[in-house]
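Hello K.,

You asked for the raw outputs rather than the summary table, so here they are, unedited. I folded two proteins back to back in the same session to keep the settings identical. This is the first:
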Amino acid sequence: MEMYFYLKNAFSLYDKTIASILRNDFTSDFSRHKSYKNYTDLFHLYENLKNKQNDEVSKDIVYRSILNTIGTGIIILQKEENEWNVFMMNDYFSKHFDVPKVTKWKYLKNQLPSLCKIIEEQDFQEIKTSLEIRVNEQDTQTFVMQTSRSAIYNQDYFIVLLDSIQNVIEKKEKEAWINLMKVISHELLNSITPIRSLSQNLQDLMQQETISTEDLDDMKSSIAAMLRRSDHLQQFVESYRKLAMLPSPKKEKIQLSQLIENSFQIMMPMFKKEQIEIINTISFDRWLHIDQQQMEQVMINLLTNCIYALKDTVKKQIIISADVKEKRTLIRIEDNGNGIEKEIENKIFLPFFTTRKEGAGIGLTLSKSIMEAHGGYLAYRKNEDDKTAFVICMVD
C-alpha cells in the first residue's frame, strides 16, 4: 500500500508539474518535493521557465510604463485568425481621445470611426498622413498619423502613432530656438571673449608707471583688434535685424524670363571672373506675381552660393531649369560642385550658420523667409550624383 501511494503521488506530482508548464501556471511551489530525486531536472526546468516568465512580466510592465508616459497616442493591434484586436493602448491615447481601453476592433470603430476608416481603407498597411478627429463634440483637431506593421513569431502586429499637429509644431519651434540660441551664443562669445581679454591687457598696461614704445604698440594693436571684433559684432546684429524685420512683399506682375535675365545680368561679372558656364534650359515663359527686388535677392543669394561651391571645380557649370505643376512655378538652380556634406544638410537654413570665412550665414535663411512670405517655399535637393540643387517654388 505504501508503494502504491508513493507511486501515485509521484505520478500525480509529475502530471501536475507538466500541466503547470503547459498552462504557463507557475504559482506552485515544488521545493518541498526535493525528495523525488528522479524529478530534479523536471523541477529545474519548471524553475527556469518560472524565472523566464517573471522576467517577461517585468519587462512587459516596464515597456508599458514607458509607453504610458509618452505624450503620443499609441495603439497596437494584433491579428488573430482573420480579425484584428487591440493588443495595447497607452494612457495618452485613451485619455486624449476619451476612449476606454477596449480589446475589440469593432468597439474601437464605434469610438473613433474616422481613424479606423482610414486604416481599413489602406488594408492595415503602412500609412503616413494627417487626419481630423473630433472628440466629444469639441472642435476638430488635426493629427499626424504614422503606422507600421510587423510580424514576430507568426504574430501580426499593427502599430498606430497619433501626434497632434500643434505638438509637432511646438517641438519643431523649440528645436529651432535651441539651434538659433546655440549659433547666437557661439557668435557672441567669439567676439566678447577676445574683447574682454584685450581690455584686461590694456588695463594692466595702463597701471604701469611708464609706458614703453613696445607697450604703446601693444595698446594700438589691442584697440585695433577690439574695433574689428566690435565691427563684426555690429554686422552680426544688423544681419539679425534684417531677418527679424523683413518687409512684406510688394507684388507685381513680372515675366519669368525677365527675373532670370535680371539676376544673370547682376551676377555676370562674377561668372566671367570665375569662368563659370551658365546653362539655361528654361524653354517657356509665364507671368509671376512677386516682389521683383526680393525675388532677385533670392536668386542672387543662391547663385552666389553656387559660385562658392564651384571654387575647386575645374569645369564650372550652373544649370537653371523650370517647371510648372498645379499652378506652381518651380525654378531649379544646381551646380556641378562638390555638394553639401550630409552632416550639415539639416543646418543650411539655420540663421548665421555658414562654412565660409567671409560669409554672414543669413543668405539662405533670408531667402527661405522671402519665399515663405510669398506663400511658396525654398527647398534643398540632392540629385543622383550628390550634387547641390535648390528649388524655388512660387504659387500663382
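The second followed immediately with the same parameters:
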Amino acid sequence: MGSIALAAKITHVPSMYLSELEGPHKGCRQAAIDGHKEISRRCRKLGVDTIIVFDTHWLVNSGYHINNAESFEGVYTSNELPHFIRNMPYHYDGNPELGQLIADSAVEAGVNARAHRDTTLALEYGTLVPMRYMNADRHFKVVSIAALCQVHSHADSGKLGAALREAVENDYDGKVAVLASGSLSHRFAQNGVSEQYLHKLWSPMLEHMDREVVRMWEQGEWKEFVQMLPEYANKCHGEGFMHDTAMLLGVMGWEDYRGKAEILTPYFGSSGTGQINAVFPLN
C-alpha cells in the first residue's frame, strides 16, 4: 500500500538556527540548511505526505515511544543551549493514524512500543530544527520517535525500524520519509573552550573514525558497519547512543541493505561533534 520514499541521516545542530541571526556566526551553517532544503525538495517531488523523525534529543528510559499528537505548536527555547536556540516558534500537523500503525506493528514484532496521541508531550529540537528548514509551510505531517534510548539494544531499535517499514508498506496509504536526526561522534568541546571548536571535532581520533564510517556508508559496507555500531557508538560518544541510526538501518534492511550513501552536506565539525546530511537510496 504505502512506501518509504526517502531515508536520510541528518544534522540538527543548534548553530543552524544561530546561523540565521545577525552577528558573527550568520551564515555559518548555510551548507547544512541547504542540505535540509534539498531533502524537503526531494520529498515534495516524491509525493511524501509525512516525515518521521528519529529524535536523539528525546530521552526515554523504558520502551519505545512515539509522539503521536494531532498537532504541535509552541515557542521553543533549548534548555541545553538557550543562547543558541531561543524563542523559536513552530506549528506542525501530526499523523496519529500512522503513529498508531507503527506502534501496533512494533508490538506485534515483539518490541515494547507506545504511541501517545492524547498528550502534552512537546517536540524536541532534534525534530524542530530540521522541520524549520524542511517544513516551514506545514506541507508535511510529522511523527517523532524517541531515539535517545538509555537502556535499549541496537538490535531492538533495528526491529522497530523494520516494523515501521512493514506498517507503512502493509497498512498505510501514503508515502513517508524517515530521518535519523543525530550526529556521528558527539563529544562536545570542554566548557571554557567551546568557541574554539565551533567548526572542529574534539579530537583527531574521533574525526578519523567518523570519516571512516562515512567512507563505509559511501561504499555500502553495511554488514561491517552493523557489527561495529555498538562499539563505535560507545567509544565515539554517538549521539543518543546512535539508536536513530539503528532505527534507520532497520528501515533500510539492516546488514542486508545494499545502497550507497549520497552526501548532501559534507561531513563537518560543530562544537566538537561530527555532523552530516546523507541520503540512502531505497530502490
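The chain has a mean pLDDT of 95.

Happy to rerun anything if the numbers look odd on your end.

Regards,
P.
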